[in-house]
Design a protein that fits this description.
By secondary structure, this protein is α/β, with parallel strands linked by helices. About 40% of the residues lie in helices and about 20% in strands.
């Protein structure tokens, strides 16, 4: 927290996106995107397919450098910092397409998350040698065990990732991100492709990671029911621009948001959620 500016941290945004534009050639993937992520919040970025959500995540986490605008984390401008540096500062990330080492075990994938946090090399991370001294190894083991217990994956700790169901692989990817001890956990479509039971489990883990670990969550998600149930703040993108943001009730009733989903053909989930909300009133 050494980079936090003076003042009450609770009043400061943990992450600020200010006027971010991202262009590939003459095509703008993002245009003037601005929003804040408050400490301890769950913020969701939603929008029709092709709205720029994953491009935004890649820009925040350092895989893309914006054409203009800035990304600030804990008050520090990180716009030009590389992705590994941002990860060590506290931006943990999962991916839309699972990015695990499929031939390695669950536990070894988690250890690699610790490696990113502690700046040891990969061999150190797996074998506890070199800079990974006894005290560090014990700390790693404690954190790894806490993550395994939290995500209820003890029974698969020694299983190769390739042998796991899709839902469990998504859980392991979340475990690896948590092993980095992030301040912000960035989840790119955390329940995509999951069945109802797996989705409910992941929703519970997202709520609990904030409540029990004190981690702020920023997620991209298409499941409108989960977004509206879990989020404190929702940012809506369409054609790379923010068309609405606010609390879930405000966003889901916004005429421009409804038009964007109607025009994209993705309105089904939004309509069902609106209907369910009206029925519960």
């Amino acid at each position: 927290m050494e980079n936090m500016p003076a003042g009450n941290p609770k009043t400061q945004p943990l992450l600020s996106i200010d006027g971010v534009t991202l262009a590939f050639g003459g095509v703008k993937a993002l245009s003037g995107v601005s929003f804040d992520v408050a400490p301890g919040s769950i913020t969701a970025v939603i929008g029709p397919n092709g709205a720029g959500k994953t491009s935004l995540f890649n820009t925040i986490s350092g895989f893309y450098r914006p054409t203009s605008g800035s990304v600030r984390y804990q008050g520090q401008d990180i716009t030009r910092l590389p992705a590994p540096k941002r990860a060590r500062m506290g931006l943990g990330r999962s991916f839309q397409n699972i990015a695990l080492f499929r031939g390695m075990t669950v536990l070894d994938n988690i250890k690699l998350g610790r490696h990113a946090h502690l700046k040891t090399n990969v061999l150190d991370a797996l074998l506890y040698v070199g800079r990974a001294r006894r005290e560090e190894a014990e700390l790693r083991a404690d954190i790894e065990e806490r993550i395994i217990d939290f995500l209820e994956i003890d029974h698969i700790r020694h299983a190769p990732v390739s042998a796991l169901s899709y839902g469990l692989q998504k859980r392991v990817e979340m475990a690896r991100a948590l092993a980095m001890q992030p301040e912000i956990l960035m989840l790119d479509e955390p329940v995509a492709g999951m069945n109802r039971e797996e989705t409910e489990d992941m929703a519970r883990f997202i709520l609990d990671v904030r409540a029990e670990w004190g981690v702020t969550v920023l997620m991209v998600e298409h499941d409108m029911g989960m977004v509206m149930d879990l989020s404190d703040h929702v940012v809506v993108l369409n054609f790379g621009q923010v068309i609405a943001q606010g609390d879930p009730a405000t966003v889901q009733a916004d005429p421009e948001v409804i038009r964007a989903y109607l025009g994209s053909g993705d309105v089904g989930d939004l309509r069902r959620k609106l209907h369910a909300t009206a029925g519960a009133a």
